[in-house]
Amino acid sequence: MIPFxxxxxxxxxxxxxxxxxxxxxxxxxxxxxxxxxTEILTMARLAQIHFDAVIDIKQIPQCxxxxxxxxxxxxxxxxxxxxxxxxxxxxxxxxxxxxxxxxSVRCKITLGGNLAGTLPYREAALPFMLFSSDAHGLxxxxxxxxxxxxxxxxxxQLNLRPGEFLVELRxxxxxxxxxxxxxxxxxxxxxxxxxxxxxxxxxxxxxxxAFSGVTGCPFTSDAINRMLNAAGSGDDRARSAVAQISDPVxxxxxxxxxxxxxxxxxxxxDMLAKIEE
Amino acid sequence: MSTIxxxxxxxEAPNKVxxxxxxxxxxxxxGTLWAHLVVSSEAHAKIxxxxxxxxxxxxxxxxxxxxxxxxxxxxxxxxxxxxxxxxKVRYYGEPIALVVATGEAEAMLAALAIQxxxxxxxxxxxxxxxxxxxxxxxxxxxxxxxxxxxxxxPQPGTNIADVVTLRKGDMNVGxxxxxxxxxxxxxxxxxxHAAMETRSAKVEILHDGRVxxxxxxQAPFEVQKLLSQYFGITQGKVIVNAPxxxxxxxxxxxxxxxILAYLASRAVSGRLVQLVNSREQDFxxxxxxxxxxxxxxxxxxxxxxxxxxxLTFWVDVxxxxxxxxxxxxxxxxxxxxxxxxxxxxxxxxxxxxNHTYATAxxxxxxxxxxxxxxxxxxxxxxxxxxDPLQLRRLNAIQPGHTTPTGVTLNLSRLxxxxxxxxxxxDLVTKPPGQVTRxxxxxxxxxxxCFWKTSSSPPDASSGAIITFNQEGSMNLxxxxxxxxxxxxxxxxxxxxxxxxxxxxDIHVHTHINTKVDPEHWKTVASLSTFMVGRAVLDAAxxxxxxxxxxxxxxxxxxxxxxxxxxxRVFIKDDPTMNVAFKDIVxxxxxxxxxxxxxxxxxxxxxxxxxxxxxxxxxxxxRPGPAWTVGCQAVEVELDTSxxxxxxxxxxxxxxxxxxxxxxxxxxxxxxxxxxxxxxxxREAVRYDALGRLVTDQFRTYRTMRLGExxxxxxxxxxxxxxxAPYGARAVGEHxxxxxxxxxxxxxxxxxxxxxxxxxATPEAIWRLGTEVxx
Lengths: 277, 774
What we know:
The complex is a heterodimer.
Chain A: E1 7-10, H1 14-26, E2 31-34, H2 38-45, E3 53-56, E4 66-69, E5 72-76, H3 81-87, H4 91-98, H5 103-106, H6 111-116, H7 125-130, E6 135-141, E7 144-149, H8 150-153, E8 165-172, E9 180-186, E10 194-203, E11 206-212, H9 222-229, H10 234-243, H11 257-275
Parallel strand pairs in A: 1-3, 2-3
Antiparallel strand pairs in A: 4-5, 5-8, 6-7, 6-8, 9-10, 10-11
Helix pairs in contact in A: 3-4, 9-10, 10-11
Chain B: H1 13-17, E1 33-39, E2 45-51, H2 53-56, E3 61-66, E4 88-89, E5 95-101, H3 104-113, E6 115-120, H4 127-131, E7 160-168, H5 171-176, E8 180-188, E9 200-205, E10 211-215, H6 220-231, E11 238-242, H7 257-267, E12 273-276, H8 279-284, E13 288-289, E14 291-300, E15 306-318, H9 324-333, E16 343-352, E17 358-359, H10 366-384, H11 388-395, H12 411-414, H13 417-427, E18 436-438, E19 441-452, E20 461-468, E21 474-478, H14 487-499, E22 506-508, E23 512-513, H15 528-554, E24 562-565, E25 568-571, E26 574-580, H16 581-584, E27 586-589, E28 595-599, E29 602-607, E30 628-639, E31 645-655, H17 662-681, E32 711-717, H18 739-751, H19 762-773
Parallel strand pairs in B: 1-12, 10-11, 13-17, 15-16, 21-22, 31-32
Antiparallel strand pairs in B: 1-5, 2-4, 2-6, 3-5, 7-16, 8-14, 9-10, 9-12, 11-23, 14-15, 18-19, 19-30, 20-21, 20-29, 24-25, 25-26, 27-28, 30-31
Helix pairs in contact in B: 10-18, 14-15, 17-18
């Protein structure tokens, strides 16, 4: 059980959410924004986090958008990964999101929650990272809303100002029209934390990749992309790309750094073969 | 119609599948207090200070108990375990203090506020490390502990809690008659029982001196005995209730939370206190299943006949012995696997480490033991270039042979392993020695055999009581706990068969209350069908005698002329002359009103016979009433380029003696196979460099998930065990036993590497492959 008491507020509008947040904070208490709750509740159960109030933002209409608008696709931060997969407006995002946790949990985890959580994987960010010049986020705080290029919004983790929350992410429609792949590798089970997840796109015959689980937080790297677009066999390009990873590769219960590097090389080669077919 | 051999739905199933079944922690009486444990954050450390001052002032806190408040050492064989750590902690997760408060949240918050100051001690990580002469001592007082139930041979001044020695035949003769030999070293991790229901206990000490316990247990009568013994309470005043148990696998045969809940209740003037393990605490505080290390040498003739086996097992008992010394004897008793070996030398050591302490786990040590011997058999098959199944057939133990502990076997005691192997030979379709290769995908099948006897105490006993409802239906009370194995249903079937009645007319008492239900030793060791079944038959015969004796008066004939069936007592040669149960089970009343006879109450007992503990010098003795034998196989497809694999098929052929409940038995065996695949492929309790358990959730302690199961094929051979009810052999644990080794044998064959430790993850196979290439 969660051993401490806390208030639950369900916000109906962006303004209400920000206002309630400020009021609670002003009274000397600690509020947090709340989406699917899968992480907040499990951590609270073990007293790993403490808060006095949660402000549930997922029912706010703007956080529930899931649609094509003009030449963009809009994903509300309060939409569950499962719904994103069902609607399948962006197959790459559906794929990346479809391997987070298990189905019951994906029905709860929201897009915003996946990006804002403390688990380092944040797989739903990978597709946006691959189109970071054509992706934007809308955030809301006491000062009103801000439209932020994805590149500034997310660099492995969400960069929000105090009291702000993510409302939606947008990506240009063409992102959904280029060849793309997302592959997750685990220790053994289909449902497990990743050894890593790789998302790859081929836009204007240029290949780009983004990684999660390899070195901690999700990342992309121009140097790696250059290696993948150089001349040579897929195997060679994959090998040089992985050799570019200079940060320590994760070495944990799920797999050693050595195995991750080996498997990542193989996976990249397989993905290259597939995407260049 | 006979119910034996019919698939009967489990008696408790309708309530379980509709969510109406109540488990121990589902009910809370008014005024219940909650206990919460403070557990060790170190694997091995001196406790310098426990600061409870702040916690004592917190809202709702009624009492805080620490090791200093309790002078008690527990242990079913060796009394080496303080219920709350005293002076030092020996494993991460060990209980240090107990907070009792008005609610669960209050207890948790106060537990969080208790500060413990430690002085770290060097940590012992593995059994072989524990053997080193310079290893840190985990129990400085090993020489002073009381032995609760011999045999055990602790070695003071070392980490050796026990040594079991087995000597059979003459090793010189064995080695001389061998032409080839192989050697293998094996390392297997501890595992968790991972039952769906975490462990919990509720205790109330009433003012009349009665102690009322409600607990998740396989051993309610052991709880009663131990509480009585530890706290000096008359046994009759300790009343233990065991409702339905949500999975046990041996992990609930030990007594831990009951003692803590008693201490908690005692600290608050006997008020009702409830202690429930969180999943995390169930993983790290309550005992796990044994890991071990082993070295095995086998010698054989060039034709493949085993001549000699030299085995050493180093059992990781963790911080405390619990039932490990008994388990070490079980491992030793069956150490050769189900093969004839005339010359055997086996030493089994129980070693203290700074791991979570171990207790029984499905198979009582036989799963890791079988892994080692069956991997060794495959090495021998490779050395001799003999098909693995043929090698096993050639050496399969048979009637007339003797076991390592010197028991001479006959068909009833052993069953027919050859028939199991032959049936498996048909199932595997291709000789398991052969692999199929398509590019870097390789298909291979691994096989393994198993055997197991109960290794139960020589005085284990069981009872059964039958009463009748006025309508003539029967109530059956036995001492087994229902944790999903279907023991209640089987005993109902056995009773229905003997009474020639419909099973619908048998009402089984599902919840155990030690005050009214007759004792059954413990619901462990796959013994329930055998022991309880015998007691039920005895009780049925007792009831039949009473029914006939009264009916003989009513029907004016001799008892010998009568038979029972379909709820009636009738004259054998003229069944139209009969009297219904309903007219006699509560006495018979003549038309004018006079009554004779009283209630019919059937009573039955059974005590195992001819068992003897292993002789301390040479390990000779009789460890169980009979064996169950079988053969298992696993087919895999491995990607040799990265070690990933798919488990395609898992197969079992087991000699079940007589199938009493076919679908029940199928489910039992398949469940075991699933568990075995989990152990073989992914399950392991893991510790970090400081000895702290890191797999305390299902996020990191991986089990098989729904949808990951391969195709299962289960087949039965039926060689009756003559002294068992309707010939049925023990089969509760056995589905699990040889699956991990069959999986490893398959993967080893496919990858061309030696898989001698578990779990066999893709990374482990890949690493072994790169080592081979290097």
